[in-house]
What we know:
homodimer, 11 helices, Four Helix Bundle (Hemerythrin (Met), subunit A), mainly alpha, DNA-binding, globular, 2 domains, Arc Repressor Mutant, subunit A
Amino acid sequence: MGSVRRYDSGVDVDVTREQARLDWETGTIFRPIRTGNAFEETVERLLQAIKLGVFGPGDRLPAERDLAARLGVSRETLREALRTLQQADCVAPRRGRYGGTFVTYRMPEPDVADLRRAARDLGGALEDALTYRQVLEVGAAEAAARRPLSPEQRAHLEDRLTELDAAPAEQYRQLDSRFHLAIGELTGSPSLAAAIAEARMRLNDLLNAIPMLDRNIEHAAEQHRAMVRAILDGDGDAARRATEEHLAATASLLRGFLA
Amino acid sequence: MGSVRRYDSGVDVDVTREQARLDWETGTIFRPIRTGNAFEETVERLLQAIKLGVFGPGDRLPAERDLAARLGVSRETLREALRTLQQADCVAPRRGRYGGTFVTYRMPEPDVADLRRAARDLGGALEDALTYRQVLEVGAAEAAARRPLSPEQRAHLEDRLTELDAAPAEQYRQLDSRFHLAIGELTGSPSLAAAIAEARMRLNDLLNAIPMLDRNIEHAAEQHRAMVRAILDGDGDAARRATEEHLAATASLLRGFLA
DNA sequence: CGTCAATGGTCTGAAGTCGGACCATTGGGT
DNA sequence: ACCCAATGGTCCGACTTCAGACCATTGACG
């Protein structure tokens, strides 16, 4: 300790502490540029779009050429991904005009064993994802509330809530995702909406595996209403508090099943 | 309006509204998988590591083999990126043992003309980035405050503040970045820290181009102290408020120069 | 004064990815 | 009954990226 070196900047620094700082920061800034190859990431995205409920069973995905362009990937790579999903019985292609790629995926029944396995796979990334999601969604709710919303936007949010309240049990998770995603989109910040979608994707397998009890659903519904009310009222503080409470409840429910 | 169709799910939906929802959500979920090729992203990362001040003038970057592994990129791609930076006089390689790639980049003088140009280049992405940053950093400060911190972590945070207070004008921006990044790292969530780094990178050229007046620096220093105090005290609400205030001040300073 | 280990510099063959052209199929429209 | 536009299916040549091996250089250390 206390070893000191003079740099060409003319500033004396403690070499040991400086090294510790560097080790720490390089890990953050020099993280991997790409998590996998284009093909794998494409599969992941498509699967998550389906699991998040953006496309339900029977829905048609955008045409290959269009989808490839949206994903910024060549059509061939996209097709390879679609072929994989097809073999996993998630989608089925239909040729000809008015054809397309149609979703055949059905949500599996929630299963606590699945949940534990999924949590083990995530490992330390679980706490990371929960913190990440908390910060993003709480912040988004507040940001959405503090923003002037168009009548269309207000209607859209209420639609999501109504849809969710009327959801049959097997669609609940997907419509819940739609609702939370909608709040992210209301912030008007594409980056924020994308980050929320990503965070939710990471937790999605876990959330999907939680058995939904009527009592939990009712509780969640109340919290959802509080969030919507606060956002439509433009009350940022209330929106933040309501979202905080809702996410804390979900997180502790999750931890409960893992304990 | 009111056109209704029955899907195989047996649920009647308003086709017009359903289409609007799809258009909206597909934009979020089917955003591009990769923003550019590996080479471009590598250049960007390196440049940002330097501009954010993780590596100052004269510092040595990690060895090529090591750096390539950290970035998840082949050594050849990394070298191509380094060659580009070399041609831009940002780094210089030195061969032999104890050699390496050394940073030669010097911060340009702040210039309002640069700032306006950079803002124009960003376009609508500016508001996006500001919102994104606000949510992330405010949330991170609160999360860090609500978390038990080790003595090393507390010392690290205080080091960053001390370092920043003692900063010569030409290093101020870089040390400011280090300080804000440190808060993200204190949350213990790598995803959150990475997102903060990314958000800051997007605004970096803008922030760097703001002429720093003594009055602003003093004001910022006060806010920084309040943030640190709140985080070390474990006072989440205070941390959030202090960060909110600080970022609002920076944002309005920025908008002022753009107006 | 030589050794040698760590570093940047160079090359190659394989695999991944891309853009684009062209084919095959289908069902609504004329 | 035919046409044709939109869709999935197939293929190819060019470019990018990769993994790994090998070379060249340097300076601290014995």
